[in-house]
Design goal:
It holds the Pfam family DUF1501. InterPro entries: DUF1501 (IPR010869). This protein is α/β, with parallel strands linked by helices and about 375 residues long. It has one domain: Alkaline Phosphatase, subunit A (3-Layer(aba) Sandwich). About 35% of the residues lie in helices and about 15% in strands. It is built from twelve helices and twelve strands. The protein has helices at about 5-15, 50, 60-65, 90-100, 115-125, 140-145, 180-190, 195-210, 220-235, 255-275, 345-355, 360-370; strands at about 15-20, 35-40, 80, 85, 100-110, 150-155, 170-175, 240-245, 285-290, 310-315, 325, 345. Strands 1, 2, 5, 6, 7, 8, 9, 10, 11 and 12 form a ten-stranded mixed β-sheet that branches. Strands 3-4 form a two-stranded antiparallel sheet. A hairpin with a 5-residue loop joins strand 3 (about 80) and strand 4 (about 85). Helix 9 packs parallel to helix 10 (about 255-275). It starts with a helix and ends in a 16-residue tail after the last helix.
Length: about 375
């Protein structure tokens, strides 16, 4: 039997993580709950219609153009039902869907409906109605509602989502190589993202040079981080709530190539998490969120621009998978004639998981975890246990 000190030492050696001060508070010895929650934040705005295409919609192919993948033959989409499919790079997640351990909530949006990465991420992370509505994060406030719970953030810095008074420790992945063209492009893309005209010009320049932002900088990193998250969460005195994040999802150019790699990394990360959790997988819920979606139509550089509604992905033995949850607005009408209409509030999805999986009272969710959010009712039927 490993002691906690031995476990952490071996984990640090095996996953090349750097110990941050204060990790001695990681233990969760007083919490009897078996439930575990992992929140994965994809920064840059994942295209939900690429991850989970509504392939059977009459207008889908005409609206998506070259972004619409084949529905038969080699490298075809993986069908979920008569309307939706999954990107071919997500083969393991598709297997989980068939085992009813993976679910989808499509057409999810935020109270903030602008197109700024930074404002949208702030709104998503602070859990309020506006980007500047809170200086603390909803995940930290959720942990504060769970007696005896501690949280862990596997990130290079402390994200807004985990800031607050509740005990949250931070582990940092080893610094990755940042001198590659893809890494530099990823940093510049964040700077240009505020201005759509400049973002398009920058995307065209990258396309001409055959550079994909985020690709080289994050190769394999997400899978390694999620494997480490699983090892932490499988420990005897494990943190029950963990957050990880990934960058490089801003696909203004050459989207099919970029997302083939990024979605493959996400799929691999969920498989690594599944394998490292072992039996604890049955009591785990994974929630994958992003700040907003992307335009339904293709742009001039074979990518998409900033949109509104995207997709929340759910995984784990505790989720009620094998289903695309929620309302589907369809593609006959679009917001501003360009974006998928948001039919669900992201907070409703998060509330449903927190209420039914982590057993947080609905009143606390409406007032403290997500302030002034009574109009966003917890979504039912997301958790199977």
């Amino acid at each position: 039997m490993l002691t906690r000190r031995q476990f952490l030492a071996r984990l640090s050696a095996g996953s090349s993580l750097l110990l941050w001060p204060g990790l001695t508070t990681l233990a969760n010895e007083s919490a009897p709950s078996r439930q575990r929650l992992l929140v994965v934040l994809l920064r840059g705005a994942m295209d939900g219609l690429a991850a989970v295409p509504s392939y059977a919609e009459p207008r889908f192919e005409s609206l998506r153009g070259d972004l619409a993948l084949t529905t038969s033959g080699r490298n075809s989409v993986l069908r979920l039902d008569e309307t939706f499919a999954m990107h071919p790079s997500m083969a393991f997640c598709h297997q989980l869907f068939q085992r009813q351990q993976f679910g989808v909530v499509h057409a999810c949006g935020l109270p903030y409906d602008g197109r700024s990465h930074f404002d949208a991420q702030d709104c998503l992370e602070n859990g309020s109605n506006t980007p500047d509505g809170s200086q603390t994060g909803w995940l930290n406030r959720a942990v504060a509602e769970m007696q005896g719970m501690n949280g862990l953030s596997i990130t290079s810095a402390e994200p807004l989502m985990v800031r607050g008074s509740a005990p949250f420790s931070t582990w940092s992945p080893a610094p990755e190589h940042t001198g590659s063209p893809g890494a530099l492009a990823n940093q510049l893309a964040d700077l240009y993202a505020e201005d759509e005209a400049l973002a398009e010009v920058f995307a065209q320049a990258l396309s001409a040079q055959k550079i994909v932002p985020g690709g080289e900088a994050s190769t394999g990193q997400l899978a390694s981080i999620m494997q480490s998250a699983g090892r932490f969460m499988a420990a005897e005195d494990a943190p029950r709530v963990v957050m990880v994040q990934d960058t490089g999802w801003d696909t203004h150019a050459r989207q099919n190539i970029a997302l083939e790699r990024k979605l493959s990394q996400l799929d691999s990360g969920i498989q690594q998490l599944h394998d490292s959790l072992g039996d604890h997988w049955q009591h785990t819920a994974v929630v994958v969120v992003t700040e907003f979606g992307r335009t339904v139509g293709i742009n001039g550089t074979h990518g998409t621009d900033h949109g509104t509604a995207s997709t929340v992905l759910l995984a784990g033995g505790a989720v009620r998978g094998g289903k695309v949850h929620g309302d589907w607005p369809g593609l006959n009408e679009l917001r501003d004639n360009r974006d998928l209409i948001a039919a669900q509030d992201v907070r409703s999805v998060l509330k449903g998981v927190l209420r039914d999986h982590m057993h947080i009272d609905a009143r606390a969710l409406n007032t403290r975890v997500f302030p002034d959010s009574r109009n966003a009712a917890p979504m039912d039927g997301l958790i199977g246990q």
